[in-house]
């Protein structure tokens, strides 16, 4: 079982699960691509993404290398199109459920880009980004949903999460991930959260 799939409990203390925004059950690999959140930021949004490098290829370390500015741009023709890109996400969930963390959730990761949700723009300012190893439109694996649900529950214990959305929802027309293959209903069943926390497009799927 992946470390992040371990159950959390309502009486779990912050010191047990979190330290300065770092989640206990994630493998920490610090990215240089982050900054402070605005003083007025309310960290109340989780944004879900999908990523694979090269697209559709799983199991390598290219995503970790991208988020830490270590990717060899000459290793694959696709990488030339993203050469010099500096991005990050707070978390990354592999196909087997393994969980990595690159940026403290107390800080601002670079995952959302130009975006808007719940009447606010610049979603990087007040969101926590979670990347799922996968390809938009394709399915995700059961261990990923288990880890994702456990992680979202732990985040909501520590931060005042009121919304969860996909990259496709906060940047419509520009992004399509995690895409039609992502099972929002399954995630809702795992979490038991109020449907109003989810995008209207997926709240009743």
Quick recap of the structure?
The chain has 205 residues and is an alpha/beta fold.
Distance between the termini: 28 Å
Which regions are unreliable across 5 or more consecutive residues at pLDDT < 50?
Answer: 1-13
Could you give the order of strands across the largest sheet?
3-7-6-11-5-12
Number of domains: 1
Oligomer state equals: single chain
Determine the number of helices (DSSP H or I, runs of at least 4 residues).
5
Strand content: 15-25%
In CATH, the topology is named: Lysozyme-like
**SS-based class:** alpha/beta
List the topology elements.
Blueprint: H1 14-17, E1 18-19, E2 22-23, E3 27-28, E4 34-36, E5 45-51, H2 62-67, E6 91-93, E7 99-101, E8 107-109, E9 116-117, E10 120-121, E11 127-133, H3 142-158, E12 163-166, H4 167-170, H5 184-191
Parallel strand pairs: 3-7, 5-11, 5-12, 6-11
Antiparallel strand pairs: 1-2, 4-8, 6-7, 9-10
Helix pairs in contact: 3-5
Explain this structure to me?
With 205 residues, the chain is an alpha/beta fold. It has one domain (3-33, 40-197): Peptidoglycan recognition protein-like (Lysozyme-like). The protein contains five helices and twelve strands. The chain has helices at residues 14-17, 62-67, 142-158, 167-170, 184-191; strands at residues 18-19, 22-23, 27-28, 34-36, 45-51, 91-93, 99-101, 107-109, 116-117, 120-121, 127-133, 163-166. A six-stranded mixed beta sheet has the order 3-7-6-11-5-12. Strands 1-2 form a two-stranded antiparallel ribbon. A two-stranded antiparallel sheet has the order 4-8. Strand 1 (18-19) and strand 2 (22-23) form a beta hairpin. Helix 3 crosses helix 5.
């Amino acid at each position: 079982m992946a470390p992040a799939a371990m159950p959390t409990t309502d009486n779990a203390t912050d010191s047990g699960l979190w330290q300065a925004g770092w989640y206990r059950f994630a493998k920490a690999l610090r990215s240089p691509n982050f900054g402070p959140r605005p003083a007025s930021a309310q960290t109340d949004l989780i944004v879900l993404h999908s990523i694979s490098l090269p697209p559709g290829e799983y199991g390598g370390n290219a995503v970790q290398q991208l988020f830490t500015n270590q990717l060899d741009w000459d290793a694959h023709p696709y990488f030339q199109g993203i050469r010099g890109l500096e991005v990050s996400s707070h978390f990354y969930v592999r196909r087997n459920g393994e969980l990595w963390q690159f940026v403290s959730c107390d800080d601002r990761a670079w995952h959302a880009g130009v975006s808007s949700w719940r009447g606010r723009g610049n979603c990087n300012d007040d969101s926590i980004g979670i990347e799922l190893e996968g390809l938009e439109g394709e399915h995700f694996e059961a261990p990923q949903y288990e880890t994702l649900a456990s992680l979202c529950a732990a985040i909501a214990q520590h931060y005042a999460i009121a919304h969860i959305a996909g990259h496709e929802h906060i940047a419509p027309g520009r992004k399509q991930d995690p895409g039609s293959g992502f099972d929002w209903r399954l995630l809702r069943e795992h979490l038991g959260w109020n449907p109003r926390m989810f995008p209207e497009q997926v709240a009743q799927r």
